[in-house]
Amino acid sequence: MARRSPNRAQAESGNAPQLIAPVPRSYFDILKKRMKEEQPPLPPIRLERRTRRQVHDGLRMLANGWNGGIEAALCVPSELLLFEGTGTRFYSTTENSNLSALLSGLGMGKLFLPETPYGIVLHETASTINFVLFDAKRRIVVRDRLLCYHDDPPQRDWSVVKNHVDAALALAGAEDAKNKGLFAVYDGTLKLMKPEAHP
User: Fold this and answer.
1) How does DSSP classify residue 21?
2) Quick check: helix, strand or coil at residue 97?
3) Which DSSP state fits 7?
4) For the purposes of burial, counting CB atoms within 10 Å of the CB of 2, is it exposed (0-12), middle (13-18) or buried (19 or more)?
5) Please, are residues 52 and 70 in contact by the beta-carbon 8 Å criterion?
6) What pLDDT, in 10s, does the model give residues 138-190?
């Protein structure tokens, strides 16, 4: 049976039904803290050291036409740290690189700088392997498709990646881009982008 709304006289006399007082904010803070304490700790991220040669060897087989010009364009440091996630491989100069923020930002058309001066990401989907190069010193980001199982042949040529790196370097080297601290980003098209704060 539906309850009747209180009439005006009831409301003015104070006899109208009252709502229960809202739950104090501190209750939610205590609940969140308790839930966090009950969660098991995450396992430590396992990082492996890779020399420049090992990184080159891992990249070489993903596309055709690897040569010294490609190695010079990528400018891989003497040593990188490797972390392998689900369908993703991260190479970084620092332990806490946060290269996943770079990936998610590119997906939204934004540039979120990772916490590393240099990084490479190999990201695999159901049919492709994508390559992402981040170089803060040279202020470039290049995302390219290396391999697509639907293409014939499935492997692309490293010269395509080199051309995009060279184009990004030329754009980042422009005086206006330098003065404004802009990054040259190739992600299907070449453009200058201003880094944004992480959300």
Assistant:
1) P
2) coil
3) -
4) exposed
5) no
6) 999 999 999 888 887 888 899 999 999 999 999 999 999 999 999 999 999 99
66: left (phi over 0), alpha (psi -120 to 50) or beta: beta
- Extract the tokens encoding 44: 């430590």
- Beta pairing, strands 88-92 & 48-51: unpaired
Q: Each residue of 97-112: pLDDT tens digit?
A: 889 899 899 989 999 9
Could you identify the residue written with the tokens 């490797």? 82
- Tally of residues, the chain: 199
CB 171 within 8 A of CB 165: no
Task: Give the span between the Cα atoms of 55 and 76, in whole angstroms.
Answer: 8
Residues 6+ apart with CB under 8 A from 63: 146, 147, 155, 156, 157, 158, 161
Residue pair 112/101 in contact by the 8 Å Cβ criterion: yes
pLDDT of 82 above 60: yes
Q: Note whether 163 and 148 are within 8 A (CB).
A: no
CA 145 to chain centre: 16
At residue 38, what is the residue type? E
| DSSP character string of 99-129 | HHHHHHHHHTT--B--SSSEEEEEEE-SSEE
Q: Among residues 163, 167, 74, which one has the least CA distance to residue 122?
A: 74
Q: How far apart are CA 76 and CA 65, in angstroms?
A: 18
How many CB atoms sit inside 10 A of residue 134's CB?
28
